């Protein structure tokens, strides 16, 4: 809406903050993956921060590698696109009011929908509809997990990279999880996010509130590590 955008990197350590977030989940969701838990947290915090109309439909689209769903399996030498963008859907009001487990459940259901039949149907739909845009506006949010892509292990002869992630500004509707090691040598997840200035302030506040909800872990310090990269 013509508002100044603020660009930041959020750093979340694997052990400390993830332990804290998992305490917010009911027993039947304790086995949720790190991607599901962290994404649910970010989706909720972002939705609250944007202060959308409670009746607005919001969507989270995880980037899912669907290679494992095919039978017979795809050849290991196949380098084509086998990605899916299933949508977890809620109203902004329901997502904001409910515990984090609500968002985790929606994400798990969306990911579980990615079957071989789903992928074949998706290919047909893309052809029939002329490859329509999957996401429009701030109500949709996409995250892709690059922590296992191995980019941080690449060595072209002068050592491994200090940073292995996006090279510039991303649209506000897209983010990536990237491997990162902080100054203390702790490995964790780094993700960029772009929001209007006031929304960014609310987002960081909500994130700190979630991470401060439980502090029983002996190594959990108050708040997460937030590194401001630049304002755009």
From TrEMBL:
Keywords, comma-separated and alphabetical: Transferase
UniProt xrefs under Pfam families: Transferase
InterPro entries listed in its UniProt record: CAT-like_dom_sf, Plant_acyltransferase
Keyword RNA-binding: no
Keyword Nuclease annotated: no
GO MF annotation list: transferase activity
Gene3D superfamilies: Chloramphenicol acetyltransferase-like domain
Family membership noted in the UniProt record: Belongs to the plant acyltransferase family.
Descriptive protein name: Shikimate O-hydroxycinnamoyltransferase
């Amino acid at each position: 809406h013509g508002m100044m955008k603020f660009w930041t990197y959020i750093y979340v350590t694997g052990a400390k903050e993830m332990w804290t977030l998992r305490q917010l989940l009911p027993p039947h969701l304790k086995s949720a993956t790190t991607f599901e838990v962290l994404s649910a947290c970010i989706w909720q915090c972002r939705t609250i921060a944007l202060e959308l109309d409670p009746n607005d439909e919001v969507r989270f689209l995880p980037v899912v590698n669907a290679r494992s769903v095919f039978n017979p399996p795809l050849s290991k030498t196949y380098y084509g696109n086998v990605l899916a963008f299933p949508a977890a859907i809620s109203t902004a009001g329901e997502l904001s009011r409910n515990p984090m487990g609500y968002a985790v459940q929606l994400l798990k259901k969306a990911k579980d929908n990615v079957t071989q039949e789903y992928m074949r149907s998706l290919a047909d739909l893309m052809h029939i509809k002329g490859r329509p845009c999957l996401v429009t506006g701030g109500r949709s949010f996409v995250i892709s997990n690059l922590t296992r892509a191995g980019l941080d292990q690449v060595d072209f002869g002068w050592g491994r990279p200090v940073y292995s992630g996006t090279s510039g500004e991303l649209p506000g509707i897209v983010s990536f999880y990237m491997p990162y090691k902080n100054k203390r040598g702790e490995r964790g997840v780094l993700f960029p996010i772009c929001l209007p200035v006031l929304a960014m302030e609310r987002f960081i506040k909500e994130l700190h509130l979630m991470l401060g909800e439980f502090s029983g872990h002996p190594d959990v310090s108050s708040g997460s590590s937030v590194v401001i990269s630049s304002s755009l």
